[in-house]
Amino acid sequence: MGNCMGIRNFCDRPKNTNVRWRLPAVCFVWQLSMIILFGVFDVHVMIFVGFGFLMTFLKRYSFGAVGFNFLIAAFGIQWALLMQGWFHSLDYTDGKIKIGVENLINADFCVAGCLIAYGAVLGKVSPVQLLVMTLFGITLFAVEEYIILNVLHAKDAGGSMVIHTFGAYYGLSISWVLYRPNLDKSKHLNGSVYQSDVFAMIGTLFLWMFWPSFNSAIADHGDGQHRAAINTYLALASTVLTTVAISSLFEKTGKLDMVHIQNSTLAGGVAVGTAAEFMLSPYGSLIVGFFCGIISTMGYIHFSPFLEEKLKIQDTCGIHNLHAMPGVIGGIVGAISAAAATNTVYGDLGLENTFDFTGPFAKRVPTIQGGYQAAGLCVALCFAIGGGIFVGLVLKLPIWGDPADENCFDDEIYWEVPEDEESVPPIVAYNNHMIPNKHQKEMNM
Amino acid sequence: MGNCMGIRNFCDRPKNTNVRWRLPAVCFVWQLSMIILFGVFDVHVMIFVGFGFLMTFLKRYSFGAVGFNFLIAAFGIQWALLMQGWFHSLDYTDGKIKIGVENLINADFCVAGCLIAYGAVLGKVSPVQLLVMTLFGITLFAVEEYIILNVLHAKDAGGSMVIHTFGAYYGLSISWVLYRPNLDKSKHLNGSVYQSDVFAMIGTLFLWMFWPSFNSAIADHGDGQHRAAINTYLALASTVLTTVAISSLFEKTGKLDMVHIQNSTLAGGVAVGTAAEFMLSPYGSLIVGFFCGIISTMGYIHFSPFLEEKLKIQDTCGIHNLHAMPGVIGGIVGAISAAAATNTVYGDLGLENTFDFTGPFAKRVPTIQGGYQAAGLCVALCFAIGGGIFVGLVLKLPIWGDPADENCFDDEIYWEVPEDEESVPPIVAYNNHMIPNKHQKEMNM
Amino acid sequence: MGNCMGIRNFCDRPKNTNVRWRLPAVCFVWQLSMIILFGVFDVHVMIFVGFGFLMTFLKRYSFGAVGFNFLIAAFGIQWALLMQGWFHSLDYTDGKIKIGVENLINADFCVAGCLIAYGAVLGKVSPVQLLVMTLFGITLFAVEEYIILNVLHAKDAGGSMVIHTFGAYYGLSISWVLYRPNLDKSKHLNGSVYQSDVFAMIGTLFLWMFWPSFNSAIADHGDGQHRAAINTYLALASTVLTTVAISSLFEKTGKLDMVHIQNSTLAGGVAVGTAAEFMLSPYGSLIVGFFCGIISTMGYIHFSPFLEEKLKIQDTCGIHNLHAMPGVIGGIVGAISAAAATNTVYGDLGLENTFDFTGPFAKRVPTIQGGYQAAGLCVALCFAIGGGIFVGLVLKLPIWGDPADENCFDDEIYWEVPEDEESVPPIVAYNNHMIPNKHQKEMNM
């Protein structure tokens, strides 16, 4: 594009002044693309390391957490690139699919929804089911995203509605359909050990650190992007403190619970997603983070058991507390702050830029925009719950090789798991005979 | 937007001279802000993953290391943003606090000092004490930084004086006041296990890799920034080799000690901090790294025990070897290399840019600057030791819930720690009954 | 440079138009340097965290994997900076070595070759041997790179030939010369445990995520750089799926093998290295990734044992499957896609830019270029095998302190390894007396 511009100027101007237009244009285009190029890797880190390790907290399901997360993401981004291509060709009536770096980011975003959903069924489904779940998930995501962002023209920079609300309720609905009454049979594995909790913190921290770039990655003008980064940063910071406070408050003797630190500390980033690029102001972000830390942690303490007992929804990672509730809050905050937007705060151009009141939407005013934001939230919920129930029924078919109730949360079922002899001193291990494991097989088969 | 630009200057030719100024300006401003925006995430990684995991080496204090590091940082950056705001309003007599991305970096820098201090008291204080320590630490930091950088106009790109010297002696002074004569009671936990040493290496490597961006993050002109990155890179590289050499030299049978590799390999980055943006020249950086590797490793072998026995300073992570000594060396190197700076090496403009000999400081010459650098080092030491002793006395009050001597270095005190059954084969674990742990509680309470 | 340009313009032009040239120039230069500056850190992550943790899969060699990887890299980048300096002075007849950020990236690239080679001899050599291996490896690398890229003028953006083919066959040749017939004596340690496999996944994921920036780091014009990133991204994505498919297909009961997921999922990035910046088209990249996933995984299942039994090559990490075969494939793909390049696909300028058909190479046509690409592959193989055998013979000398056959894959030999008592409840550990370990020594010597 820098090229064709350069060429255009080339024709209609004397040679020596060309650079005046071409050079800045190249700088500009490159700058934009580099922003995106680095953005995509940051987001990449969240998808592969962040989500992957966040789910390693289970004592014997770390391979499944990291490995299947890897599989879902690698398949999902490819499928997402195709879906996007088709939907964009709807816009521009251009049959060919072009892949730019922007598409890679969007692909990561699509995948995020499915990885969130994975959290609800972690340890209870087979890799085949996960692939099916991802296939439908990406497809549903592409449609709801298209409706929310293009048709309703709602804004959702950080994807509180499009990604988190959708992904979470999609997963929870599937988990509801796949309810296992006898899951207690494998309850001895449905918990963490010391090391696995430390591994999970790797996921937490990488998600926490890069969340600002996630929320600001697609906010495409400088101001909006900085606002998004800063608002997210502040919301996340305040969430950490309230999470620690509530966790300590409700545990006996004020001890902290690692599961809260691993998850609820991220809730602020989810909730500030939609409104991130709006003028939320620092204290607005801090307040959002403050309450989400409370709600999310309380969710783990009181609401997860209720979901399990009463609503028959088994939510392995507690995504309802980390993504579902904060996502909905984010959608509502977005709708309110959009409806409350005024020229005095944004300035005429600011309002126009932030909400893109241009072209067919030139006549929109903030209050109306607020309504469309709310409508967007409903669309996300409908697609999530409807789609989730449908996919859940598909996954109920007895052909997918899912584990028995007593084998849930166990890597042994889908992975070659090496013998554990961590604590056996090498010399002893050397003396006693043991089944050669995979690496040895390679060496001496 | 690249588009509309092409279109704009295409159609209305008269207005075309506007873009000549506006467009490059936008490129320029964005470029700067993106540099900072990415800088902040790199620094983020050091603060949350780097410092957090570096302290996980203790066998039963990984939750405390990563978790409390997370808590301190999340609280600290918020408090730091406020402190900065107030201090900048001192400069510009502007009552309102504006938060830009630059502030986020500076906030990370403030926090770094407190996380360094945490290393000295790791495992021996309560989270409440840590928060108090952070509150005062950030405040002291803001004042000493203001005096050193703004009043004395000393340069300290990588914060050898402002961050490392201050943070280390602040923590050591606190540890000295909180001296525990009977700490041996929990000495069985004051050591590492195999896995915890590997976790600590995650911290080491992320600190090592991003140190060049840490030292160059606030060096704000292209040349200085590249110099800072390259000098740091070289200093760190040479430190690794000397650390390995000394570690092997002083251990029986030439074995390497993981604690040296985890820590001393970073000393070069600390020591080159102040002088990073000066014309230190590659071999200058290599020499600084070379000696710091030696001094830091020797410190672990000979000086830490001495600190413990004679000076009654218990330094859990050995920050005296990683931050205190290298920080002071860095300050001295900075003072000397500033005093030795000449027009022939920097060029007239170079000298002016590097040391900002402008405005009120227009008349300064390198020799004088060297003096002010030395003064800056003294200021850092005074604030650190004075402030540390005061805060230490505050923390001695019996109201903060700190652990008993026999419970130090133990996550059990402040965390819900899951049962460890790593090495018990799942089938056994399945047969015997165990206390349901946190995740199970959620599932069946 | 932006500076001197500014100054030049300053003299020979009326004042008001200065900025027109200087400001865009500064933007432009800075943009380029920032691209590189961030590129270098991304690549850094692969070198230190990626390669380091990828090799931690062995149950008792994690210290050696991360620690020696760290040592090799830190020494290697320094030696590489010197080698580069000398070779570039060959070009410009300029005696002085200047270090720019570009050099840091190239240094990381040189080191990558040696780290790949380390994978073949992991656990079987002493740190001294590793340093010797690195010294020669970097030297050989610098020569073969100079011949391939500057003399033959072959293109190799991602280093399929220059880095992977060379590094892998260099390591395999050394391993062949150092063949240990009685390696079975330490076979009890030549395998993984649960935690070590999870640690290895940290390496895998960081390599996987940043591979696109690795392959695009030195592709220096915007278009080529984006193509390189996108092609690599797609190749990697498809590799993951085929790896999972083959791994499940050949394991009994369709279980997945962690060693395949850890390694073969990266093969696509290796194979697409040379052709990454060419117009491979999305499906071209997907196809390359598809077949490399199959070949690499099959290699682990069938070829590694064959190498061990018949060819007497003991390849600890299976680099033959991850780097050697995919590297050669990459070289061939590069040669073919270069020979097949046409103006219709690239456009006149595109062809010229992509292959740098300028200066002495102005007359080259794609078919000829294809020939030179193939020649480049041969050069890489000759240097690797020839150099490897020579270095292997040097390392066979009985002066390097390498481990006995029964002590291979054991950190105990070169590291102070802490007692493991992970699974002993603290209270027990507290009652029984134990040998004070390193940290305790510090506390009470």
From TrEMBL, chains A, B, C:
GO terms for cellular component: plasma membrane. The lineage of its organism: Eukaryota, Metazoa, Chordata, Craniata, Vertebrata. The gene is LOC107720776. It is found in: Cell membrane. Functions as an ammonia transporter. May play a role in the elimination of ammonia in the gill. It is a multi-pass membrane protein. Keywords: Ammonia transport, Cell membrane, Glycoprotein, Membrane, Transmembrane, Transmembrane helix, Transport. One of its GO terms (biological process) is ammonium homeostasis. Signal peptide: none annotated. One of its GO terms (molecular function) is ammonium channel activity. Its main location: membrane. It comes from the Eukaryota. It comes from Sinocyclocheilus rhinocerous. Belongs to the ammonium transporter (TC 2.A.49) family. Rh subfamily. This is Ammonium transporter Rh type C-like. The keyword Metal-binding does not apply.
